[in-house]
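Case study 2.
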Amino acid sequence: SLAKEMDNLKSENERILQQYNGLLLEKEEEIQNALQEITKFLEKNQNLTKANTELQTENIALNEEITRKDNEMNQLSIQNSHEIGNLKAQVDAQSARIKELEENEKKSLTKSDEVLMEQDQMKSL
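Prediction:
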């Protein structure tokens, strides 16, 4: 009877041990799957970090280009202002010269009218 009880206990221990080993294998598989998921996540995270770094580098380069273009535009705007000022001064000077020439022409016409009138008077005498 003691031997039979010991056999029963051995059988029970063997069954429990097999059950325990089965659970260990399941948990080991779950852990392996979780580690694979973590590895995939870390790879994805690494790729995103790399892409983010590349975008930041590109963004810095674009910002530098924008700053350069801004400076060029400011320079061109200043040059345009100067050129517009110079052209306005030229137009003003030409307008003044035209006015002066027109006045001289009027005076000249008036003078030649006077001369013609005097000649007419002389002829009639």
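The chain has a mean pLDDT of 94.
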